[in-house]
Design brief:
- By secondary structure, this protein is α/β, with parallel strands linked by helices.
- It folds into 2 domains: 2-55 and 337-345, Nicotinate-nucleotide-dimethylbenzimidazole phosphoribosyltransferase (CobT), small domain (5,6-Dimethylbenzimidazole Phosphoribosyltransferase, Chain: A, domain 1); 60-329, 3-Layer(aba) Sandwich (Rossmann fold).
- It contains 15 helices and 6 strands.
- It has helices at 2-9, 16-28, 37-50, 82-93, 97-105, 146-165, 180-192, 196-199, 211-225, 232-239, 242-256, 266-278, 296-304, 320-338, 342-345, and strands at residues 60-67, 107-115, 127-128, 170-176, 260-263, 286-288.
- A 6-stranded parallel sheet has the order 3-2-1-4-5-6, sandwiched between helices.
- Strand 5, helix 12 (266-278) and strand 6 (286-288) form a beta-alpha-beta unit.
- Helix 6 (146-165) packs across helix 10 and helix 7 (180-192) crosses helix 12.
- The longest helix has 20 residues, at 146-165.
- The termini are far apart.
- The structure holds nicotinate mononucleotide (NCN) and 5,6-dimethylbenzimidazole (DMD).
- Residues 77-79, 175-182, 203-204, 264-267, 292, 294, 315-318 line the site of nicotinate mononucleotide.
Length: 354
């Protein structure tokens, strides 16, 4: 816990000088002031995070945390838990949506086993960081111990520290874990204060008539475990997941290492919310990309104060919306590098009499 505390204490504000220089440059480019909207904001944010003008086209990684969930025993997920393991092999084979979109975005995909139930061969090209074989069924007992939650957070921290030393400037959150929308719903309800029925959705595709059962399971898990809303680690341990705790660690360490943290959908956002409750100093380092179909996603973004710029009715997870968002971020950086100024292009806008 001391390590997490000192990491949080090391998070610095953005470099406002780099941001001001970036804004000045944007205003000199051949366009009406502010007309590239969110692209301009993103370019300034990255400059402030990296502390440089102009920020370089960033080296990008998508860290995909995978784990299983004991609560799947309650019939809350459409797919069998074995799909978590099967999808890991699909990620390695390069055939999953996140493989396609990471390649498209020129982001390196790193798959991390934090708590998948099966044994993977040691030579499998993933990061072998298993804390335990999935969580316990949170309807009956705590999903995991506080010690395990902290160990999972540390997996995320260590991953980011390695990536920071390799020069990555942007890290996206990804996850795979059948049942993890049930855990995320519990986290979202406890940490936003919203009723469970307002944050639970169909997840990976349960039929509408099954949603009320999922609501009941989440309500009972919260009633049984009594997670303390003032203690995000307690919430992660009692009603969370190993991959969610690990993602919370990624968020904290990204901010501490001046790396932009790109959020994906509902599950990654529940990890961001937990990290935000640990320290709101992470906020300037966050980039929200898309709005998931899961109803709890908006509730989380509202609490943290973030606005996503894509709405594609996606709810796949894996980091897919996040890497799509990275392509927009790259576009913003290219504007800074490649667009001509008024002076260079000899464009002299006439002053309007309006
Ligand atoms: O990120 C999202 O918004 C999202 C919404 C619904 C489902 N998912 C993905 O689907 C899986 C969890 O769904 P479920 O129904 O098994 O809880 C998990 O592997 C997630 O990556 C992801
Ligand atoms: C096939 C499949 C892929 C996924 N990726 C993230 N969650 C998933 C759930 C299923 C079922």
């Amino acid at each position: 816990m001391e390590e997490i505390k000192s990491l949080i204490a090391s998070i610095q504000p953005l470099n406002y000088k780099a941001m001001a220089t970036t804004l000045k440059r944007l205003d000199d480019l051949t366009k009406p002031v502010g007309s590239l909207g969110g692209l301009e904001k993103m370019a300034c944010q990255l400059a402030g995070i990296r502390g440089t003008f102009p920020p370089a086209l960033p080296r990008k990684a998508l860290v995909l945390m995978a784990a299983d969930h004991g609560v799947t025993a309650e019939g809350v997920a459409a797919s069998p838990p074995a799909v978590t393991e099967q999808m890991i092999y699909n990620f390695i084979g390069g055939g999953a949506a996140i493989n396609v979109l990471s390649r498209h975005a020129n982001a390196d995909l790193i798959v991390v086993d934090v708590g998948v139930k099966c044994d993977f061969p040691p030579d499998l090209p993933i990061m072998h960081c298993k804390i335990r074989r999935g969580t316990d069924n949170m309807r009956q007992k705590a999903a995991m111990s506080r010690t395990d939650a902290i160990a999972a957070i540390k997996v995320g921290i260590t991953m980011v520290e390695t990536l920071a030393s390799q020069g990555y400037a942007v890290i996206g959150l990804g996850e795979m874990g059948i049942g993890n929308t049930t855990a995320s719903s519990a986290i979202a309800s406890v940490l936003t204060g919203k009723p469970v029925s307002e944050v639970v959705g169909k997840g990976g595709g349960i039929p509408s008539e099954r949603v009320s059962h999922k609501v009941q399971v989440v309500e009972e898990a919260i009633a049984h475990n009594k997670p303390n809303p003032q203690d995000a680690i307690d919430v992660l341990a009692k009603v969370g997941g190993l991959e969610i705790a690990a993602m919370a660690g990624v968020v904290l360490a990204a901010a501490a290492n001046r790396i932009m943290l790109v959020i994906d959908g509902f599950i990654s956002s529940s990890a961001v919310l937990a990290a935000y409750k640990l320290s709101n100093r992470i906020k300037p380092y966050l980039l929200a990309t898309h709005l998931s179909e899961e109803p709890g996603h908006q509730a989380i973004l509202d609490i943290v104060g973030l606005t996503p710029f894509l709405q594609l009715n996606m709810c796949l997870g894996e980091g897919t919306g996040g890497v799509l968002g990275m392509t927009v971020l790259d576009a913003a950086v290219k504007i800074l590098h490649e667009m001509a100024t008024f002076e260079e292009a000899k464009v002299f806008p006439v002053k309007s009499n309006l």
